[in-house]
């Protein structure tokens, strides 16, 4: 008799952002004239840059001609994009070859799907709070989750717990949801820990384009020894505004092996079974985003969001509200005033200021009492939001 995967029953009843949307729509239905500003979900608002659009238009035209039409592409991505990604790593002195790069439809699916190539069982080590996909995908796969405390005392940048022997370690830097960023010394401790335990680090670098401090690492592969224990998962969603286009990639060094077997070859095998590749049109746009002109245009968009983050951070500083992020990251992670819980603060912001943010408790138990604001809104909306926040009485 057929049965459903009972691990789905272990998931939280409502996905965090679905619950936020539900509460927001209910409020708007009761207050149809309310000017609600959304600073919750990390979705970009600026359009794609012109170099990306030009490349995608060119690719569309190619698809309309017999001589240049393309059907199924390589499972690992077209060589022109993998070469462009490989060259982009050279900015940080990192040698990642095109054959170590695997193009996908985004970091979210990769962070979940990558678990399939590893044997079930063992411990998955996940910081608390964290991006929900790490937890949910591990639960669905029936893995044993061990949490490591990220909290105010360590600025939400936990270091290894040597009492835990993990098989897989999830790290995200710049972090979602907290905006905290690991330095090289801290990441070296994680790499040494992974090597000692023969663990694999799944390093989510989706927000690396927001790093401005030259001393902070953009990639796990800036750390000695990481190529023997780490997989890097990246995305064009935030850096190039591809949230509605969908493109990302996984970088797996050829040195990374488990029981003498290539992890990269295993991932390619999985992709060839379950994934027919990212569209040619999308990949042409992604390659253009990595061109000199494309990166200069994308930088203007990133700076726009960073100015939004700075405005939010300065407002919170003026109100003496503890927070991190807002620099080297598009997210602000604040401590709810007057010991309010996360959903209580959500309701106050929504009903008193018509601002939507993200309750920290949705990212894990250590997120209770904290709150995430996103800088991915329109500048005029962020300006209005800061003025409204200043008027609140805490």
Summarize the structure in words.
The protein has helices at 16-30, 50-63, 79-89, 107-113, 132-140, 184-197, 263-274, 280-289, 292-318, 342-353, 379-391, and strands at 37-38, 101-104, 123-128, 144-149, 166-172, 200-204, 230-235, 248-251, 257-258, 261-262, 323-325, 331-335, 355-356, 358-359, 370-374. The chain is of the alpha/beta class and 394 residues long. The strands form 4 sheets. A 7-stranded mixed beta sheet has the order 2-8-7-6-5-3-4, sandwiched between helices. The chain has a 4-stranded antiparallel beta sheet with strand order 11-12-15-14. The N and C termini lie far apart (57 Å).
What is the helix content? Answer: 25-40%
Through-space gap between termini: 57 Å
What is the C-alpha radius of gyration, as a whole number of Å? 21 Å
Number of strands: 15
Short key terms for the protein model shown above:
single chain, 394 residues, alpha/beta, seven-stranded mixed sheet, four-stranded antiparallel sheet, 15 strands
What can be said about this structure in brief?
The chain has 394 residues and is α/β, with parallel strands linked by helices.
Helix and strand layout, with pairings?
Blueprint: H1 16-30, E1 37-38, H2 50-63, H3 79-89, E2 101-104, H4 107-113, E3 123-128, H5 132-140, E4 144-149, E5 166-172, H6 184-197, E6 200-204, E7 230-235, E8 248-251, E9 257-258, E10 261-262, H7 263-274, H8 280-289, H9 292-318, E11 323-325, E12 331-335, H10 342-353, E13 355-356, E14 358-359, E15 370-374, H11 379-391
């Amino acid at each position: 008799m057929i049965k459903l995967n009972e691990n789905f029953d272990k998931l939280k009843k409502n996905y965090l952002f679905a619950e936020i949307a539900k509460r927001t729509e209910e409020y708007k239905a009761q207050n149809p004239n309310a000017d609600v500003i959304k600073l919750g979900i990390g979705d970009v608002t600026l359009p794609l840059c012109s170099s990306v659009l030009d490349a995608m238009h060119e690719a569309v035209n190619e698809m309309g001609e017999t001589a240049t039409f393309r059907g199924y592409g390589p499972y690992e991505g077209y060589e022109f994009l993998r070469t462009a990604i490989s060259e982009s790593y050279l900015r940080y002195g990192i040698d990642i070859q095109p054959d170590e790069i695997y193009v996908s439809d985004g970091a979210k699916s990769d962070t979940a799907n990558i678990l399939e190539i590893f044997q079930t069982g063992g411990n998955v080590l996940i910081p608390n709070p964290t991006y929900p996909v790490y937890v949910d995908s591990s639960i669905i796969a029936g893995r044993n989750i061990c949490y490591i405390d990220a909290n105010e005392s360590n600025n939400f940048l936990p270091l290894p717990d040597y009492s835990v022997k993990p098989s897989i370690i999830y790290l995200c830097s710049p972090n979602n949801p907290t905006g905290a960023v690991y330095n090289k010394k801290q990441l070296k401790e994680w790499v040494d820990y992974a090597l000692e335990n023969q663990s694999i680090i799944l390093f989510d670098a989706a927000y690396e384009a927001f790093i401005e401090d030259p001393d902070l690492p953009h990639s796990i592969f800036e750390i000695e020894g990481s190529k023997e224990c780490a997989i890097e998962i990246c995305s064009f969603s935030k850096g190039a505004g591809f949230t509605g286009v969908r493109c990302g990639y996984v970088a797996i060094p050829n040195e990374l092996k488990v029981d003498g077997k290539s992890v990269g070859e295993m991932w390619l095998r999985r992709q060839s079974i379950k994934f027919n590749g990212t569209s040619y049109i999308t990949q042409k746009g992604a390659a253009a985003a990595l061109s000199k002109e494309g990166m200069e245009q994308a930088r203007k968009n990133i700076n726009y969001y960073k100015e939004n983050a700075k405005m939010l951070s300065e407002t919170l500083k003026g109100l003496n509200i503890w927070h991190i992020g807002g620099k080297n990251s598009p997210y602000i992670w604040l401590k709810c005033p007057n010991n309010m819980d996360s959903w209580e603060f959500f309701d106050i912001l929504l009903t008193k200021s018509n601002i939507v943010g993200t309750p920290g408790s949705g990212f894990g138990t250590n997120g209770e009492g904290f709150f995430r604001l996103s800088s991915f809104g329109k500048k005029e909306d962020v300006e209005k939001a800061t003025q409204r926040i200043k008027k609140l009485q805490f």
